[in-house]
């Protein structure tokens, strides 16, 4: 242990610890591994759920006049600037104009309107975000996908599809101890 003016510094072969709060790596990053955090590509917009049954007679039947009146009188303030996930019972038989009318009305204030369970729509937005990202800067790089709980398997599958043709090696985990998933031969 070395004492330096009130600040204790402990020296270890690979790391040094200063004030027992900060861990510094003494080994230079010779491996040139690039970390990619999938959480950085998650959709940032706020999502709001809306039950289509609120617009139907007894939550089941389309009465055109009542539907249009209810839709036109709907307070849209809660949807302003947000993405709306409109969900409904899959067993309902609904004409296509219902979906068009709802989309048209919500787009007056909402950022996006989609139909289905909110988690599925968020996942689709995440996958689309990855597809629209240019990963050319990772060509011939060794890339580790940072391990994070809660990231859906579909997101890991999509990034594998997108990066495999580009990167020299694809890994999972942390830069210091990655698990090799794929390596170009």
Task: Give a short overview.
The chain is of the alpha/beta class. It has helices at residues 64-73, 96-106, 118-131, 153-163; strands at 2-4, 7-11, 15-18, 22-25, 33-36, 47-51, 83-87, 112-115, 142-146, 169-173, 179-183. The protein is elongated and about 65 Å long.
List keywords for this structure.
alpha/beta, elongated, disordered N terminus, 26% strand, DUF2480 family protein, 185 residues, 4-stranded antiparallel beta sheet, 4-stranded mixed beta sheet, DUF2480, single chain, 11 strands
SSE map:
Layout: E1 2-4, E2 7-11, E3 15-18, E4 22-25, E5 33-36, E6 47-51, H1 64-73, E7 83-87, H2 96-106, E8 112-115, H3 118-131, E9 142-146, H4 153-163, E10 169-173, E11 179-183
Parallel strand pairs: 5-9, 6-7, 7-8, 9-10
Antiparallel strand pairs: 1-2, 2-3, 3-4, 10-11
Helix pairs in contact: 3-4
Organism: Lishizhenia tianjinensis
Protein name: DUF2480 family protein
Pfam families: DUF2480 (PF10652)
């Amino acid at each position: 242990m070395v004492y330096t003016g009130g600040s204790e510094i402990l020296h270890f072969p690979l790391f040094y610890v200063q004030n027992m709060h900060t861990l510094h790596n003494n080994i230079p990053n010779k491996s040139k591994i690039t970390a990619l955090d999938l959480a950085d590509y998650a959709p940032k917009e706020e999502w709001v759920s809306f039950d289509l049954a609120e617009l139907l007679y007894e939550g089941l039947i389309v009465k055109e006049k009542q539907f249009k009146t209810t839709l036109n009188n709907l307070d849209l303030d809660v949807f302003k600037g947000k993405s709306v996930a409109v969900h409904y019972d899959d067993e309902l038989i609904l004409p296509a104009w219902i979906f068009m009318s709802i989309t048209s009305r919500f787009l007056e204030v909402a950022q996006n309107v989609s139909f289905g369970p909110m988690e599925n729509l968020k996942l689709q937005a995440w996958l689309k975000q990855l597809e629209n990202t240019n990963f050319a800067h990772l060509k011939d790089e060794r890339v580790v996908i940072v391990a994070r709980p809660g990231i859906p398997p579909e997101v890991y599958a999509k990034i594998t599809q997108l990066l495999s043709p580009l990167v020299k090696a694809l890994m999972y985990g942390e830069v210091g101890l990655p698990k090799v998933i794929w390596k170009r031969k």
